[in-house]
Structures are given as C-alpha cells and as structure tokens.
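Friendly challenge for the regulars: who can give me the structure tokens for this chain first? No prize, just bragging rights.
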Amino acid sequence: MEQDIVKVMLVDDHTLFRKGLAELLDGRDNIRVVAASGNPGEAAKLISAAQPDVLILDLNMPPHGGLALLRELQEGAWEKPTLILTVSDAEDDLANAMRAGARGYLLKDMEPDDVVDAIQRAVRGETVVAPAMTLKLVNLLQGGGARNAARENLLAQLTAREREILDHLAQGQSNKAIARALDISHDTVKLHVRHILSKLNLTSRVEAAVFAIEQKMAPRQK
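First reply, four minutes later:
Bragging rights claimed.
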C-alpha cells in the first residue's frame, strides 16, 4: 500500500539552512515541502493556504521568535503538529516550547534520517524529542510530592468525560480524532478542552497532555 504524502512547511530565518532542509526533505518519497518562509508574520498567512500536515519551526527568529508564532496558531484553529528545530539544547527552551504547544523538539545537528523519522512519528500523533533532549524531558516530567498532590487535587475537579478527553490529549490526538473516538461532535470536544484547560490552570492542549503524562509517571501519595 502506497504511503500518504506528508506535507511539510518550514519556517526558519536562515536562508541557507531552510533551502538545504527543503531540498533534503523533498528528496524523500513520502514528504513534500509545500511552503517555506523566513518570516513568522508571513508564515502565519501562508499556513492557511498551504495546509501543511507538519510545521517545522525555528526557535529564535526576529522579531519575536518562533514561539510567538506557535502561540498565535494555537489560539486559532491550528491542530496539526509543530516541531521545533533549533540549535538550543537548553532545558528552559524545551520547557517553553512544549508549553507553547510544540509536538516535538529537534536539534539542528541531528542526522537527516532522524529528522525524517521524527516528522513521520509526529504525524502519527507521537511527541518527539532529539535523543540529546530525552533526559531533559524526563526531568521536566518529574516532580516532588507536594507537586504531585497538587496535580491530584486539580484532576479531582474534572468530570469523567473530561478525564477521558485528557487521556486522549496525552496520546497526541486532535480534537477531530477525539470526537470520532468518543462519538461526539467536534464542537463538544473543543468545549471540553476549554473546560479542562481552565480547571487545570493551563494555556494549551500540549500543556494538558504533558500534565496528564506527568500524573501517570508520578508516584502516588500515601
């Protein structure tokens, strides 16, 4: 069975890197670069026309950085995965990217095949990080006893349906996929997600997913 083509959009202000990555990805049978930009403001306009399956975004770009664009998209109708591709291996940058709604965090010194694999995994709903960032992601997901108890108190505010939807968010599913899985409308899922974010004091669906994963990893209070 022929594999579906994955449509990718690149946003990186370094022209040589952007064009080189586009050429590398277009050389793959199942990936096509449908748009590329070095300007976050221009990129926001291109996305609706290009309809990419994956957005690959540089972290540090003028004037406000890649995360400002990502937050803007998250406030709109964007539900496709965004992967940060950067030179920064700082844990704070990783944390900020995931909180802003990124599905993955990749480094520019990764092997090309690993970047391609990360794109394909992200399309399948997985959260992906560069191997060098794995331990830092684990550190972010770990917390002390007081923090674990606080999480459990927040979770207690959720209804059974909201907990069910939170589990689907932790699996990286889109609102449409959750609606199909639970046999409810897309608008109903969006409403539940808003309630979940409000009750958990979070700002994005990815934060909610990370919260759920943290809770599953955390030791139970005795």
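Residues 138 and 214 are 9 Å apart (CA to CA). The chain has two domains: 6-139, 143-217. Your move, everyone else.
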